[in-house]
Design goal:
Blueprint (H helix, E strand, L loop, with lengths): L1 H35 L3 H14 L4 H13 L3 H14 L4 H13 L3 H14 L4 H13 L3 H14 L4 H13 L5 H4 L10
Length: about 190
């Protein structure tokens, strides 16, 4: 009888954990939906609830960071991105979001490091290529920025922001119409 009670207790514990995970997943999904709708207070509440049930949910930490950043609470957002990265150091989206927040603080070198790390993890991350280009351009590294804008456009040819940034970079070098021609720094244009 004692063994049957022990097994029963274990089964109940597993079911309780599964129920919490399911509730945590539901709260996370509701947070994602609220974030997509621009309802940041609901997103914050749902991500916080998900984390109360599963504190190791790196995606919920990242989502909470996004909601907090949208309401101007960048310090708290940065803490959430860092928590996500403590749990999962190879989470490209958290590196990217942390990079964006750091740029806002003027910590460009640290942001560049996080954008580069996001790209090591996820090389086809067009937004990270574009934002790395912006960070490099702010440091005067226009030739390198151009390479990242072009890479963003290789990944997403319709990426208007990257196209505009590439055009602006070429204009800053006194070149016009080069973005459409696909010119790369240091590369001769074919005749």
């Amino acid at each position: 009888m004692r063994n049957a009670m022990s097994v029963f207790s274990v089964v109940l514990s597993v079911l309780a954990i599964a129920g919490c995970k399911s509730e945590a997943d539901k709260a996370y999904q509701q947070g994602v939906e609220a974030l997509a709708k621009g309802n940041y207070s609901d997103a914050e509440a749902n991500f916080s609830h998900a984390l109360s049930l599963n504190p190791q949910d790196f995606e919920a930490h990242n989502g909470l960071g996004l909601a907090l950043a949208q309401t101007g609470r960048v310090d708290e957002a940065v803490a959430q991105y860092r928590m996500a990265l403590e749990i999962r150091p190879d989470y490209a989206e958290a590196h990217y979001n942390l990079g964006m927040a750091l740029v806002g603080w003027g910590r460009i070198d640290e942001a560049i490091m996080h954008y580069r790390r996001a790209l090591e993890i996820k090389p086809d991350y067009a937004e990270a290529h574009n934002n790395l280009g912006l960070a490099l351009a702010s440091r005067g590294q226009i030739d390198e920025a151009i390479i990242y804008y072009q890479k963003a456009l290789e990944i997403r040819p319709d990426y208007a922001e990257a196209r505009n940034n590439l055009d602006a970079a070429f204009l800053s070098q006194g070149k016009t119409g080069k973005a459409e021609a696909g010119e790369r720094p240091g590369k001769q244009k074919a005749n």
